[in-house]
Amino acid sequence: MKKLITIIGICILIITLNACKKTEKENDELSSNENTVKVEKDWETLDKSEYSIEYPKNWTVDESGTEGTVFMLTSPSDSDTDKVTQSVNTVIENLPNDNIDLDAYVKAAINQVKTVYPNILKKEKMKSDTGDDFYKVVFSGKKEEMNQYYHIKNKKAYILKPFSFSGVKNSIT
Question: Which fold, 43-171?
């Protein structure tokens, strides 16, 4: 039985290494193609005392407080016909006391969001790179899905909301 497990492990390792080698070869072929899309490697950092977020250099930053956000990041249009825009925003809410933990806050937030997005597709408690707990909740409504990420630190709730929506970019302010 141990020999069988060892053989299976070696086979998986060989398959994985071959897959990586094939991917490198495919990437080399793609880079020689004239129609290859250039990927931006330059990122900016919005670094504040309470949070820090990295974003592509060509995105716009709005820190005006629109709709209660502390910031909103918005992608540029890829072309004149591109009607889909990506956006990320964060809301920070001061909590009244230390008795509100992450689980209780997320439960209350879900009840509030469910008035617009009644279905919960996923609710997952996760760990950040720093070891802090946060929740990812995926809601769905009549026409779309929405992700929200919840984290609590120093009596404040942080809600990160990535969006992808259709429409004219200039109508978003």
Answer: Protein Transport Mog1p; Chain A (3.40.1000)
